[in-house]
Amino acid sequence: MINNDTLAHFTVMVNNGSGCLFNGATTDYLYVLTCKHNLISNQTVQVAAHYLDDHGHLVEVALEVIEQPFIHKDPNKDAAIIKVKFAEKGLQLLIINDPVSFSKTLKLAGYPEVRSDKTYQLRLNDIEVVQTGEHGYIEAVVGGNANYDEIVGQSGGGIFFIEGERIFLIGIQSRMAAKNEQLSRVEFMPIKFFEEIISDNSVHLKELLPHYLYSFSFLKTQVMKLEGCFIEQNVAFTRDYLRAIGEEIIQSPLTPLLIKNAFKERLVVHNQALYCLSEKGIWIAWLEFLIVMRIMMDKKITDINLEEIFNSYRLIFSGTDGDWAQEMPSIMRSDYKGLKKGGKVIVSTNRKPIKPFIPEGMVTDLVRDNRVQSGELKIDDGIGHPLKAYKLYHLHAFQAICIIGKETDYKNFSTLTEDELFKTLQTEFNGLLQQHP
After folding, report:
1. Which residues does the chain have with pLDDT short of 70?
2. What are the φ/ψ torsions at residue 110 (nearest 5 degrees)?
């Protein structure tokens, strides 16, 4: 479960200040986003992570610094990036690039100097965005009447927001707005300061994007889990076979980033926050979708025929943790431009569906109960209402109905019968779309 304590995993000490770990676009290193002024007085950069062991004892782990720090060329921007040896963080920070419009209470995490003698130094402060300041800094007020001495040392610490199982990085704390204990105001740097450093050093630094956007290989063990069988061994070979087909896709030019750049907001349901395009869930869904398409169409999926597939079978994603049935109003208003009449809409969500497709005879009732003005529809001329023009399915139906619900049909497949397994899966997948709803 993600909570405030989780922020400790992303917060490090940088010399006498703080820094924020970011698991970026490579597994060669991690970024530490921090402040220039944490580095200037020290020729040797020291980065350390602190955590409490099972007995409550403080453990300090030095992180190996790679290369010299990269600092912002603008003297008015306090941003700096340090590269440290890669360690898998598990969780992925999501970036919010417009902090001024973010009206929620945020968390500042860092290591203030006044707590240097305490057993566990990490401090969390509530802060709220006030306004944009000089040179693009963001001014925020700190809750709890925090004074200057309590904030010193937190410079370089991350500004976070937690929502469910997601952690958003809003910015990096730089300084007090004024050295006045009564004001309790800080200035933090938006993420774009660090993106500017990366742009100026593109030979040495990669974008602030999750590494799995660059290759499906990081997700291959998370697809086609086929969970819910009474005898797991019944589908063990089929699972491995499906993932082997996934390996073929991994070796192709197709990457999550290529797909993201090609289709952008058409990949998600109406009004879905675009940060979900950087989440694992949508790209796990896409790898599963491509595996299904590879079998159904019996041809390799490439960057050349991807749009053709997208215009016949439209995968759209919702980051909801609820059932997809609750997303119907947004699904109806999603972008179907380019999708042919009679096309199939495949919906994916973070949660397995209660019903994997719309029951027969319910479409008319859904259209009536979720009235949509024609001007709200994003669909080609002459197509009509999307629920009437297209058939909708949840992506999990391919696993639940075609394999898990028929697990005993798969128990005898082996390397010797792979061709037969391919034909069985092809028949099942195509049959699903023809028979339901």
Report:
1. 1, 41-42, 89-90, 102, 113-120, 145-150, 178-183, 436-437
2. -175, -175
d(CA 142, CA 147): 9
Can you tell me the distance from the alpha carbon of 410 to that of 224, in angstroms, rounded to the nearest whole number?
14
Q: Nearest to residue 258, comparing CAs of 287, 231, 232, 238?
A: 287
What is the reported pLDDT for 175? 85
CA gap 301, 239 in Å, rounded: 20
Give the tens place of pLDDT for each residue, 272-328: 988 899 999 999 999 999 999 999 999 999 989 999 999 999 999 999 989 999 999
Ranges in the chain annotated CATH 2.40.10.120: 4-200
- 3-state DSSP call for residue 140? strand
CATH fold of 4-200 reads Thrombin, subunit H (2.40.10)
E-strand spans in 350-390? none
Half-sphere exposure of 287 toward its Cβ, with a 13 Å CA cutoff?
A: 32
Largest CA distance in the chain: 76
